[in-house]
Design a protein that fits this description.
Number of domains: 1
Strand content: 5-15%
Structural class: alpha+beta
Distance between the termini: 48 Å
Shape: globular
Number of strands: 6
CATH topology: Glutaredoxin
């Protein structure tokens, strides 16, 4: 398949996921070089890995990733570009700088940096429809058999990944895009996975150090999925 013939992709993300963020950096560079249209969509690791008896993220007054996505949903109504900028900004704050965009006060401070009003935070939290918009995006992945992020949708097909810690740029970014789109030629090719040895784990830890150092919540790892849960009851 001609990778250049694929001009649009839906990218489902949870802003708390460091791997989705790294993949988004790669896809942004593909967009820079090709004009690819990226439609940002949501997915909740809090919800997909929720333990029985624990509140759903939409039942909490503030829930780290979910609430950041509620703000994103309100911004997306205005324009996809605003959501694009919001994900880029909060992603850099958390995964590059080790900051705390998931804290309401810091999230509010970041909104003017993308040209949005601080009132967007209050508007998003006061509007129950933002819950619905996230749930709709989330359910789309579940119904496709998905379980985590990044999940990419190309017309009728969905792919989980690529999962990256060292996103390629320039020519290498285009080469990975070519390989990723090549999967679409084989709709019954379900999985290829590279085992993570000790040196791989060490490298992942190095790249994710800012995020790991700033993390103030409990993580739950269920096999192939990493969950980032708040400490809220």
């Amino acid at each position: 398949m001609d990778s250049m013939a694929v001009d649009s992709v839906d990218f489902h993300f949870d802003p708390m996921c460091p791997f989705a963020y790294q993949t988004s950096l790669w896809l942004r560079d593909v967009r820079r070089q090709t004009g690819l249209n990226i439609n940002w969509r949501f997915f909740s690791l809090e919800e997909v890995n929720r333990f029985e008896g624990k509140k759903h993220p939409w039942e909490r007054e503030w829930s780290y990733g979910w609430s950041l996505m509620r703000i994103g949903a309100a911004l997306r109504r205005k324009s996809m570009d605003l959501l694009d900028q919001w994900y880029a900004r909060i992603g850099a704050e958390l995964h590059r700088d080790g900051g705390s965009p998931h804290v309401p006060e810091r999230a509010r401070e970041l909104l003017p940096e993308i040209g949005a009003s601080t009132d967007v935070l209050d508007e998003a939290l006061a509007d129950s429809q933002t819950h619905t918009e996230i749930q709709t995006d989330h359910q789309r992945v579940i119904e496709a058999g998905g379980f985590g992020v990044p999940t990419l949708f190309f017309a009728e097909q969905a792919l989980f990944g690529p999962v990256l810690v060292d996103p390629p740029y320039g020519h290498d970014a285009l080469r990975l895009w070519e390989l990723t789109v090549g999967w679409l030629e084989f709709p019954h090719l379900y999985e290829i996975q590279r085992p993570k040895g000790t040196r791989d784990q060490e490298r992942i830890g190095e790249v994710l150090q800012p995020y790991l150092a700033g993390r103030d919540w409990q993580s739950v790892n269920r096999g192939e999925v990493i969950d980032f849960e708040t400490k809220a009851p």
